[in-house]
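hey so u asked for the seq, here:
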Amino acid sequence: MQELEASERSVEHLCAISVDHLQIGMYVSDLDRPWIETPFLIEGLRLTEADELERLRQLCQRVYVDPQRSTPEVQALLRERAMPLERPGAAVDPRYRVYRVHPIERPAEEELRRVSPAFTEAREMFRRMMHDEQTWHRNIPQVKDTVGRFAESVLANPSALSWLSRIKNENEYTAEHCLNVGVMAMIFGRHLGYDRKQIEELGLAGMLHDVGKMKLNRAILDKPGKLTAAEFAHIRTHALQGYQMLVDDPGIPLAVKNTSRDHHERLDGTGYPYGKRSEEIGLIARIIAIVDTYDAITSDRPYSKARPPSEALRILYKARGDHYDDALVIRFIECIGIYPPGSIVELSNGMVGMVLSVNPDNRLHPRVLVTLDENKQSITETVIDLASDNNQGDEALEIQAVLPPGSYNLSMEKMLLHIV
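ran it, structure tokens below
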């Protein structure tokens, strides 16, 4: 009962209205088009100026207002006019829309302390499982328990697991990749407004999408150089092998089984194993395809060094519509944001720190764990909330630059020690 009540509190219905009825004080939570296609830099906008109203009227036909985040005057107006709280009709692609807002329940520091032990345990479990072809299935109940625990954490504050999933070991890429794809899929599901059950299904699909790789020749899987045609053909067999490993388990949802087979299919038919096209590929498989690619690009692999999140997002954006679902790529870029947790940043006053957490409603102003002063000298770690009312005025701090990983010898592992 307690879990149900918490879930119900996390759901806020939005009011779909015509842009002709927009008024100052309304909180616009979503549009009838992706935010990234508009001049507004972040999702969520409380209308305070007439030019904002005019821009929205030029860009959209209707918007989705959150009554609870609007001013009291707007709330009274909505009640007086009895404007219905509704979802739009089926003609609007649901992958563009957000209908649930899961509020941040705990600060990232607290959630990191709560979930770090479970993440460490899960990482060890995946390492054992992916090296145990004979009895791997005995770990499925623990995988499901992990998904449930992580879903709770993602709903409370997605920044914590986002941070942990970026701490990677090159020598354990395959095992950690399965865990990280599951985590990122759940975070993406939260962003899409999915409920807990849907988020858990995404997490399970992500964590099991590459189980077929335990059937592969380890020397080929871990080869540091370019694969031959025969070796690449061998690697491609993991999709069907994974499906065969899961297909007879009645406790695994059909969509999860299909995703293990279809996560390398591409919309234009150039994927494998069957060369499926567009609607032949299920929604969860489309989501995992995007998350799988993102984590692979941002990880150290035997044959490739990790690239920054911005480059991974650029690659996905370029391939949208052909390889990846156009709408989902846009939403995933929104989900990752400009300053993902773990990014090393320099503030406008010269101080340097690491992004600790990001509020989904204010992605340009994250909370930063500052460790270097204006002269780049070490100081006692201090959390600065760039969105705080205390950080306003003419000299409000902003992020001036995103620095390369490892700058000033800063690392997520070291920073985590100061938090947990």
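The radius of gyration is 22 Å. The domain at 108-336 is CATH 1.10.3210.10 (Hypothetical protein af1432).
lmk if thats what u needed
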